[in-house]
Specification:
Layout (H helix, E strand, L loop, with lengths): L12 H13 L4 H5 L10 H15 L6 H11 L6 H11 L6 H30 L4 H16 L10 H17 L12 H7 L7 E6 L5 H16 L2 E6 L4 H13 L3 H6 L4 H16 L2 E4 L6 H9 L4 E7 L18 H19 L3 E6 L22 H5 L2 E6 L1 H4 L8 E9 L6 E7 L4 E4 L7
Parallel strand pairs: 1-5, 1-6, 2-3, 2-4, 4-5
Antiparallel strand pairs: 6-7, 7-8, 8-9
Helix pairs in contact: 1-3, 1-5, 1-6, 3-4, 6-7, 10-11, 11-13, 14-15
Length: 446
Amino acid sequence: MDELLGRRVPYSATAEQAVLGSMLIDSRCIADVIGRVRADDFYVQTNRDIFETIFAMFSIGQSVDPVTVLDQMKVRGVEKENSRQYLLELMEVTPTAANVLEYAAIVRDRALLRALAQVGDEISNMVYAGQGEADSMLEAAERKIYALSRDRDTGGLTPVASVVQRVFESISEAAARETAIPGLSTGLTDLDNAILGLNPGDLAIVAARPGMGKTSIALNIARAVGKASGKTVAFFSLEMSREQLVTRLLSAEGMVDGKKLQTGRLSEEEWRRIASAASVLSAADIRIDDNPSLTVADMNAQCRRVKNLGLVVIDYLQLMQSAGSGNSWSNESRTQAVSDISRMMKIMAKELGVPVLCLSQLSRANTQRQNKRPMLSDLRESGAIEQDADVVVALHREGYYDENYENPNEVELIILKNRRGETNTLYMLWLPEYTSFAPLDKRHDE
């Protein structure tokens, strides 16, 4: 089509040949090359066939040279009459394998330009075909462009062979880490050990009745990730203002009574702690949006523009809008709307490649039971939440219901669902004056 329209397709046959020639000259560079280019990045079909053959041989530990590659091309059914001569020419036209990464960068750059042109055509066709409203088409266009910027496909079947290398790299990175936690640390050691941290693509739900400390634990986790990971934390608050949230962050970080902060009646030592806390929090990249009418699409669009995103926090699910006014959900039940929101959040986590931590209210069902500890069925308005979530943690304070309870500030973190491990109960100490949590050294008999 491009040739018919007189447009020149972006590709460099010379760079493609130099990459393949380098891999044949020095097989030691293959590992570096396959980490930077894929078979689809090669425009010339013959070059693509050769790369796929070398990739398959490398994946199973076979030696790579012109003779073995030609033999495997026969086995794979991609050998042609001039294949032997072409392999030799590849080695002859390659000046040196030392510059292979520069050749690979050219191949990848041209492939990205072709992909961008294809996406541009898809967007143009979508607009002229009138497929949906302007907002939905804009969302689809942003998603396609974002997938390119993240070097990810927008869909389609992917061979296992092309994923194996990425899995090996992930395992190697895990082995090199000092800790056994693959995900981002929540700052709560027991919780990290149980759920293996907050992992890319995961949807984690923290559920509780009002007043149990949902927002506080979310702020604690956001603060821990922002300080330790060096990544950006996006905090969407549909209930509290930026100022209220930052006041809580300062109280927890500086260990200064939140009520004193609001009155300004602080001692010199407390002023020093607040100044130090302000410095620490300013160094952490935590960004807050307190727009109460945000949709998942709005959040997703904002997060796509954050370069070093590490975590998304949403407070809280039941306050979210399903979509703007006049949408297809307007006449549906709130339960269906929450189900759709839950599903969209899981899709957002996968698309952004970061964990999404969402707070959720529990229904009043637990208050009618003698044992008031939450269950999965208590998730308010939607059974779909428990299906979409990778982790569900419920907060429970017995002292909230029984004023005579021996330790009213004891908090149970009940792990109701955990795709990365077992479900169990953890114990924390609630520090209401600092809106914070601390470890509780408590062991319960089985």
